[in-house]
Amino acid sequence: MSTVRTPATTTLVTGIAELVTNDPTLDGSPLGLLADAAVVVADDVIVWVGPAASAPAADDRHDVGGCAVLPGFVDSHTHLVFAGDRAAEFAARLAGARYDGGGIASTVAATRAAGDAELRRLVALRIAEARRQGTTTVEVKSGYGLTVGDERRALQIAAELTAETTFLGGHVVPPGSDRDEYVRLVAGEMLDACAPHARWIDVFCEPASPHAFDGDEARAILLAGRARGLGLRVHGNQLSAGPGVQLAVDLGAASVDHCTYLADADIDALAGADTVATLLPAVEFSTRSPYPDARRLLAAGVHVTLATDCNPGTSYTSAMPFVIALAVREMGMTPGEAVHAATAGGAAALRRSDIGRVVVGARADLAVLDAPSHLHLAYRPGVPLARTLELPRRGRT
Ligand code: NIG
Ligand code: FE
After folding, report:
1. What is the CATH number of the domain that holds 241?
2. What burial class does residue 98 get, using C-beta atoms within 10 Å of its C-beta: 0-12 exposed, 13-18 middle, 19+ buried?
3. Number of helices and strands in the chain (H, E)
4. What tens digit of pLDDT does each residue of 126-170 get?
5. Of 63, 156, 286, 327, which has the maximum CB count within 10 A?
6. How far is CA 230 from the centre of its chain?
7. Is residue 104 part of a domain?
8. Alpha-carbon distance 27 to 207, whole Å?
9. Which of the listed residues 311, 315, 317 should we mutate to test ligand 1's pocket, taking the one with most ligand atoms within 8 A of CB?
10. Each residue of 307-323: b (16+ CB within 10 Å) or e?
11. H or E element at residue 386
12. Nearest atom of ligand 1 to the alpha carbon of 172
């Protein structure tokens, strides 16, 4: 028996005023910039990158008309599976109230009450919203179900839309639950039900919150997840210089996220580790908190990533361009560092080598800016410049 394979349709993308490749071999800088560039895509894969003047022929041609093109944003930290909103809590914070995670319970109640179809609709809407702003990969956490059935449901719905699903039963102890019993549930029966639908496990490690988990509880949950084959992620050092960063590094987590309050020892630990520090400046914006010290992390050689943390409590935005603008203005990152962190950095946080770069063999996940260079992402904040590049696909069976 023989199979006939339909040859891939190739598309030449031209008119690229500036191409961000994240391939440092091109220009010696992390962004790997190429002016007047072209890219050839065969179905979902990049097959050629170089100067437009030497581009090969292709079946189709797509001219972006002098725009900048970059790898699609990799949003490596979101909590998109939720119902309801917490606008009143946000308003109270603007009037001076502090965030401590207590509001999560109200989202848990709204999410449990939502039907499957409604929850699926909400998640799809939010992912579409992110794509309209140039995001091509989204990690999605559970964490607003906090029962075996509700956590499994959240992950099943997320898995319909992304491969990057994260079990966050260890978000907070649900009101009325015994703390030790809940940790046992998360690390036992809930994990058993959720692991088949998740790639990662995460935990909100924050002794400064009465609702979240201390270092020992977080370690127990993460170790159980690891034993089930899940990769590790940690919410750490959001409200205090707690044990989250050290725990993440100690266990070889892919990422520790927030890093708002860091001790010297945390920076030292991250500097020698594979664990990336994911900064979420839209959280500091929305909770009126001090921004993480990105410059210090970068100076120490820490791998820094940017993500939205899109959730109804601390950061109700799906906009990676907004996060980039904040990182530049409020954390002193250069536009190049911020764009790199939002693309290649996100890929590193998800331990993916097939995304976050415009190189031969990578996925053709591209974003286009209605602007001639990546600098405009910070230079023109709030302007909808970024979108994903949607190429027509022919000849696919
Ligand atoms: O990453 N801090 C823990 N979890 C989320 C917030 C969740 C919420 O308040 O609904 C975060 O900030
Ligand atoms: Fe989060």
Report:
1. 3.20.20.140
2. exposed
3. 14, 15
4. 999 999 999 999 999 999 999 999 999 999 999 999 999 999 999
5. 327
6. 17
7. yes
8. 45
9. 311
10. bbbbbbbbbbbbbbbbb
11. strand 386-388
12. 3
Query: pTM of the prediction?
Result: 0.97
Return the CATH number at 364: 2.30.40.10
- Tell me which amino acid residue 309 is: D
Q: 379: CA distance to ligand 1 center in Å?
A: 29
Q: Are residues 221 and 271 in the same domain?
A: yes
- Together in a domain, 190 and 298: yes
Distance in angstroms (rounded) separating the CA atoms of residues 126 and 237: 27
Domain count, the chain: 2
Mutational pocket test of ligand 1: of 79, 166, 259, the residue with most ligand atoms within 8 Å of the beta carbon: 79
pLDDT at 177: 97
With a Cβ cut-off of 6 Å, ligand 1 is lined by 79, 101, 103-104, 107, 204, 235, 238, 283, 309, 311-314
Domain membership of residue 244 as a residue range: 73-349
Say yes or no: 176 and 265 in one domain.
yes
Q: Is the pLDDT of residue 4 over 90?
A: no
Assess whether pLDDT exceeds 80 at residue 385.
Answer: yes
| 363 has pLDDT over 50 | yes
pLDDT at 393: 66
Ligand closest to 139 (CA) is 2
Which letter does DSSP use for residue 388 in this model? E
pLDDT tens digits, one per residue of 56-104: 999 999 999 999 999 999 999 999 999 999 999 999 999 999 999 999 9
